[in-house]
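Case study B.
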Amino acid sequence: VVNSPYHKDMFQLLKTDAVVEGVHFSPDTPLASVGWKALCRPISDIAATGGIPRHALITVAAPSYWKRNDWISLYRGIGKATLSFELSVIGGETVRSPGPLFISVALVGYARKEHLRLRSGGHPGDLICVTGRLGGSFTSGRHLRFHPRLREGLWLSQQKGVTAMMDLSDGLGSDLPKLASASGCSFQIAFEKIPLNRGCSIQDAVSDGEDYELLFTLQPPKRKSLLEKWSSLFPRLPLTCIGQLTASSVASTPIASGYDHLKA
Amino acid sequence: VVNSPYHKDMFQLLKTDAVVEGVHFSPDTPLASVGWKALCRPISDIAATGGIPRHALITVAAPSYWKRNDWISLYRGIGKATLSFELSVIGGETVRSPGPLFISVALVGYARKEHLRLRSGGHPGDLICVTGRLGGSFTSGRHLRFHPRLREGLWLSQQKGVTAMMDLSDGLGSDLPKLASASGCSFQIAFEKIPLNRGCSIQDAVSDGEDYELLFTLQPPKRKSLLEKWSSLFPRLPLTCIGQLTASSVASTPIASGYDHLKA
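Model:
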């Protein structure tokens, strides 16, 4: 986040993210899905701040055996994502990779200063809420075809009482402690309230990661009206309150940590 | 290049560039040098447009065996470059690489609209000029410690008669045809005028690549005054006119193509 770009009331957002063969996708993943995922991950990050992505730079380190059709497949996925979320690829680079396929995406976006939401905005007593359902992203293949919550994040950032927000990329068990810590709080979770994807256990929902749902905190008095508006605007996407931030002097609910790319 | 950021008279410049172990540096290259090179390559690109880099996003895919000291070494080189060229690292990402070390840098910079120089600005008759000396960048290790021509590019972009500019990253034999083609011209080169690094042949200077010198075109009437000012401002850096753009109907001087990362 850096100061004003086009307007003194705006922040400019810069986000970079990379996917690596063997870490974020397997060698037999269709390249169109790889392209979609590479672009949608940083879109999800910007969405979770209440921002709008506009420009993308894409760097591809491709194995030397790549043929024309491989590039076409990859860019079919990238192109689909840019169309779906209305951004432009304005540059990039291709290099040869002696190892796995590697794609790095840098996004430039914008947010109104008054609407920007960070991890650090939460206060003790705020409700902890999540969009959608959690768990099983890898086994179901959802991590390759998810839709970043761009409209939802933008709308939430404009609602009074939404104090902190982030996207769930590493898993609730890893991301919630980050949000709470950035807000100077501890947290209490009602595990039985966590919305689960079909076939998933609570443990899966906590630790699988790559849900790309929104995790946000909400002042309790705003709960009823926000849930009502939400269900009329986004009727097919659940919104669930699963716990509460507490003073940092209280011990947090013990929660298994989520997926950590560097340790995995 | 996208329209105005902070000011209607400015362009915002976005550039991404990547270095890969085994392509741009070897496994035994000191990591501080790798960090320096990773940052200085896109700085050189922005310098060659007459722009100023401001913010950097850095993505590192590091082998899983990396220790704390490896990160410190890498960021020593990155930090040295940000201090030398006055830019800020404002974000980035680290992921695990199952293969080689991979570093992708995205830079955001600015240029005054009237000063922006592109490859496409040349006209038949313009002189072709280069800064510094060419060739031998890999064998001498110069590709790991070069200084992007930031002050020089900024100054050149402000001089009347400088019509097109780019940096020499792939080698004169590959880059000059790109500049000429973007300008809709052919070119004539006097090979014996190409400024050579010690121990280098003309062939080396044409095809080695990674010189990171500036290649630009100049209206002939401005030659004398520009060379005079140059030698008082930058007394230790040669500036040499090596040829001329011609109408596209004329055949270009045959020139061996330079280094191509994808084909190498």
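Chain A is about 30% helix and 30% strand. The remaining cases will be described in the next quarterly update.
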